[in-house]
Amino acid sequence: MKERLSMTGEKAYEQLCKKYGEITTLRNVSWGLHWDQDVMMPTMGLKNRARQLEMLSGLEHEMLVVDEIGDLLSICEDEWGEQIGSLGGEAKVVNVREIRREYDLARKLPGDLVKAQTSASSLARGAWGEAKKDRDFKGFSGHLEKLLGILREKADCLSEGKVVAEKWDALADLYEPGCQAREVEAVFRPLRERLVDLVGRIAEKGYEPKDVVNGVEVGFDAQMSFVRKIAEKIGFDFEGGRLDTSAHPFCSGYGYGDVRMTTHVTGDRLGGTLSSVMHESGHGMYTQGALEKHAGMPMGNYVSLGIHESQSRMWENQVGRSETFWKWCAGEMRHEFGELYEGLNARQAYEGMNGVKRSLIRTRADEVTYNLHVMVRFELEVAMMRGDLEVADLPGAWDEKYKDYLGLDVPDVGVGCLQDIHWSLGAIGYFPTYTLGNLYSAQFYEAAKRALGDIEGGFEQGEFVGLLGWLQTNIHEQGMRYRAGDLCEEVTGEKLGADALMRHLEAKFGDIYGL
Amino acid sequence: MKERLSMTGEKAYEQLCKKYGEITTLRNVSWGLHWDQDVMMPTMGLKNRARQLEMLSGLEHEMLVVDEIGDLLSICEDEWGEQIGSLGGEAKVVNVREIRREYDLARKLPGDLVKAQTSASSLARGAWGEAKKDRDFKGFSGHLEKLLGILREKADCLSEGKVVAEKWDALADLYEPGCQAREVEAVFRPLRERLVDLVGRIAEKGYEPKDVVNGVEVGFDAQMSFVRKIAEKIGFDFEGGRLDTSAHPFCSGYGYGDVRMTTHVTGDRLGGTLSSVMHESGHGMYTQGALEKHAGMPMGNYVSLGIHESQSRMWENQVGRSETFWKWCAGEMRHEFGELYEGLNARQAYEGMNGVKRSLIRTRADEVTYNLHVMVRFELEVAMMRGDLEVADLPGAWDEKYKDYLGLDVPDVGVGCLQDIHWSLGAIGYFPTYTLGNLYSAQFYEAAKRALGDIEGGFEQGEFVGLLGWLQTNIHEQGMRYRAGDLCEEVTGEKLGADALMRHLEAKFGDIYGL
């Protein structure tokens, strides 16, 4: 310790990077093993894999919470003083700030509480599956109550020594650093009103574009081959990543130069596969956009789940569901698939990929209604954390909101408040990151167009490098330099708001539905 | 330490198993990552993966060499006394004995020497590749000399406190525990003479069976689908394993229930693919045959590389190149591939899969000449370790032996003494395990037939479960209970010798070539 205290900041920083690099190396191995489990692993390997993952996460935690890391951080902080607290700034300052944040969070959580959550959510996850199948909320409600109790305690631990407005904020902070319920509400409320209104105006038109992209039996191999080409074309680097299949699409990886994304293929749903691959490619390109010199450090990491989602949504929606994209993509499909898509018309494909319909299931929702599904969950989880809503009253409150925002009656909890797995995993604070992603995406996209001019003309020719380059410079290469909200202001010149997303939606759906 | 010394043997053993289980958990992750690197990883991931593997092997080593493991071992040894030293015996005794062996070996090697070997062989590997390409031994000889120097030092460290007849033995012990050059020579010498004689008699006949299995353009997907069926049929469990492709076939895995094997497919070489899959399935079934209760412990591990190879060779050669197997397999191929193999005749296929021809390249050699290739390498590496052969004289000595044993002139070192990568990796003592595998295989196979009666009649019907069950009981489930030689005596009633293999070869090739 003595020796350490006499260290210079540079020397301490060097050691800190080495130690933290080892932690992220183990973390990357775990991420990779998760990918392997969902994509490659034979069924009998499950127990063995669980042991490996448990051990790696234990090692990772042990290596993070040692006093030595705290000492090294203190030396750096003493030397670089006030810079550390501020956002932006040079790489070493960002790295120290973010390692400090992680270190403090990890030290604040008692091992018993972590184990209690793991065990409670493991039981809750099983009970959730059963209850959803049986359409019986009572089989899950006790588990959710217990989990919420643990999460309240966790929120208290995490907020120790910090000013946190409410418990939900402390939990959401793990997915979206700095996120606050009040601020999210301030953006979501007007957005919700404008979306409900837009959905109403669309519904009134009674127009249902035909889904001409899906419904054609293309087969597995042909779909995979086509979507790989599209992913490569928009900029996903297959020298540094793979695309495979899994039950649910996701994007993960083993670390620098090794992104693993997946999709799920149904033989006659090429449009669905394509959207999911555009989405996951967005995540993947964000990861690939980090600079090698920052690999394993916070400066080579992502800002928040909301910002990650902004990248996936931009390629899925702003690009992949735009008319200009389809002017190019329809031609690619005619060329690739011959008679299967012989008469495919770009306008029809574009409209077909953009059908809006009120529905009960979030994961199948369109670009407009999707955010309403998210808001229902956000509002209810905040209410539960605040103690304004009892778990027993969750189904009723859920159904009421679906009636209010989407005009739908929920027949049972299986397609109601039990449809998503998140709460059973204890993931409170996660849902809003989906809609935050849509909001950031729209605002970033407008900024990119202001900076780059007519990028959409390029899309028509299958050129996407301009947009990707702008994202790399302004977002990917910035790592964790800024918090999500600050990055948004820095890049777009404005705080996060609902306007950009609404302009995007009004323009597109106004055009399609003749509003 | 005090607390530990007052521990009971049972308690110490329990803790030892926990600690050692963690070490093998990390080791299994490393094996899996190696598989991923060769089979799945995108090219850009190389540097990142190297960092992960280096870190995991460092952690694994650190966890093994701590004093605590030594203390726990001592308590068990004190309590169980003489049992520990003996072979055979109950699981806990075997586990303590083998963990002690591994612990002592790991503690004996100075970190500097390990690093020196890693760095020297990394350079040697690169130089080997260049020298092989340039067909210029001088580009490699300096590296080999340096490596041999390090290996001599390593042999001295490894033999410290043990009676080891010569340096080569200490190195071979890492692949084939207890293996001694003198003993290997005593088996190989008569085998060599009899093989040279057999090859001569075959050559005299001038008969060249036509290779009717290869040479048909079957394509990748059809080959993979067919060989997967065959692997499953002989007993490889796909619920606990996978088959993929890589540049060179191998068998590895992530641990219990998760075997990963690979093959290499050339569109018109179905026979080659099939043989390699039979071979790797043999390795894979050995791994799958370990008992779950011993997972992660020596009792759930394999005896030696020679014994591992005996399992792969048995399925590749004794089974997969037998006439009875082809009576079944030819029918399967006619059924699977329709007109591509319409007139496939079992006898012709069997003969075609068993062509014997003197050649320069080990990896392409047939079942008879293969062992002569191995012996050349074994004799030369022993001579070099003994100081009886200078590195500079290696090419000459190599060529002389190829002339003596195989009657061939070696045109250059690229197809001569530089053809294999092994020595450049510092793997002295590895080559003989290939032929040891063939010898054990033949001897085990005779024992199985004595115990089971007419198993070959079953092969004709595509029934292999009898042989596999016998291997499981007698070999796979025994883990590391015996050393290779003792296992052989235990299972076959005889010491390892050349007779069984020669009986097998004389019978088969006598029949095919009319000797």
UniProtKB/TrEMBL annotation, chains A, B:
Binds 1 zinc ion per subunit. Gene3D superfamilies: 1.10.1370.30. It catalyses: Release of a C-terminal amino acid with broad specificity, except for -Pro. Zn(2+) binds at H279, H283, E309. One of its GO terms (biological process) is proteolysis. The active site is at E280. It comes from the Bacteria. Keywords: Carboxypeptidase, Hydrolase, Metal-binding, Metalloprotease, Protease, Zinc. PROSITE patterns: PEPTIDASE_M32. GO terms for molecular function: metal ion binding; metallocarboxypeptidase activity. Its EC number is 3.4.17.19. InterPro entries: Peptidase_M32_Taq. Its cofactor is Zn(2+). SUPFAM superfamilies: Metalloproteases ('zincins'), catalytic domain. Belongs to the peptidase M32 family. Broad specificity carboxypetidase that releases amino acids sequentially from the C-terminus, including neutral, aromatic, polar and basic residues. This is Metal-dependent carboxypeptidase. The lineage of its organism: Bacteria, Pseudomonadati, Planctomycetota, Phycisphaerae, Phycisphaerales.
